[in-house]
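Preliminary data (for renewal application), guanosine-5'-diphosphate complex.
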Amino acid sequence: MRDYLCEDTIAAIGTPLGKGAIGIVRISGKRALPILKEVFRRKSGERVESFENRKMTYGIVVDEFEEPIDEVLVVFMGAPYTFTGEDVAEIHCHGGIVVTRKVLREVLKRGARLAEPGEFTMRAFLHGKIDLTQAEAINELIEARSELYAKVAVKQLEGSLSNKIREIRDRLLETKAFIEAAVDFPDEEIEILETGKIKEKLFEVKDEIEKLLKTYREGRLIKEGIKVAIVGRPNVGKSSLLNAILMEERAIVTEIPGTTRDVIEETVTFKGLPLRLVDTAGIREAGDIVEKIGIEKSIEKLKEADVVLFVIDGSAGFVEDDRRILKLIENRDNVILVINKKDAGLRVKCEKLRNLFKHCVEISAKNLDGIDELAERIMELVVLEPESILDGNEVVLTSERHYELLKRAKESLDKVLTSIDSGYESPEFLSIDIDEALKSLGEIVGEVTTEDMYDIIFSRFCIGK
Ligand code: GDP
Ligand code: ZN
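Predicted structure:
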């Protein structure tokens, strides 16, 4: 259960695992200082009773037997001027990741609890350090059932969306200032507007908004899961592939009853991707959709699928029966050809079928070979820029609220542009629609609030204060 009252003192390693010479253990909460005093000693072994705020102190971390674990630099930062708004202590370890973990373990032994993903940021919100989109991201994070989704949510939590929205808003404000100049200096009005500068600026802003809107498709897939159908003739290894995927899976997360009575979907995480295996029961039982439910229903299923995995037995080649199935999925750009049984020697390779299949991967379901690559291919198909999402560089919309408000902002801008084109009446007129767009953007980050908005968002929290 999450700790919305921030009673616990939490701790975690705050640096990327594995890399870098320094590992930082971050502690936040009421007991940050007492815990720091417990584990920290001067090089001489002497306890330190008071730390200067925000000043690094050099020394060692000891275990409960006063045995040194690592040489460290520590810093204490008192509430409220910290990231979380609470007392924060940081221990900068120099002995590599193993040692950093040991230091963390000591900290946990002295009464801190291991922080959940995003929990430091959640506290920042609870203490009023972050805005609405960031707060919403906390919900997303709690609900996140795959690493990829968690990554997107964490990014939003860190303010990526807020920053983007503010950037768009600032550009729009600039444009508005331009228009208002036209109001204030009516003589120059026509000249200013005729420069085309306003239109140009509006198009730029609109472009930014449209780019963001486009990410909603992938955002939804990341959030709700990617529907995957596996097809192929008997004995090519569909069940084996399914097993390979299920083996990767950390946990079966949900069972969603489908829209029709007889369809069951299962969501699994596969290499960090949320996959919804369509008609899993059927797939498991009979090996594949075509076998189980017949051609017609299969076609329906294939239509619904975000990704179709077309499995063939590469050791047998691309045979007549494969062609029959190919007919079903022709003209679809979301098909990945999976050439299986690589271990048995392939008679057909991706190279050869390049003109038929844009996306192809050679695997051995038996040896779990090529499974990573398959995950990458799936990702490429549904996600615009997988690397940038994984690096956390891309802002991805996952919330319908954000999507709708952005759409409204765009519509307001369309109105402005139409007015300009159709020989507007007066610049004040344009300003009204620009204000509408600004209002929509403001609502996203919570600067402009509507009455029910907080209710909707915060009813999901059990903040209790
Ligand atoms: P399905 O009918 O398409 O579901 O195929 P299965 O998964 O049941 O596999 C059919 C046969 O192919 C079984 O004997 C599997 O052991 C074998 N098989 C599946 N994948 C591989 C593979 O990667 N390499 C080899 N050599 N055999 C495989
Ligand atoms: Zn099978």
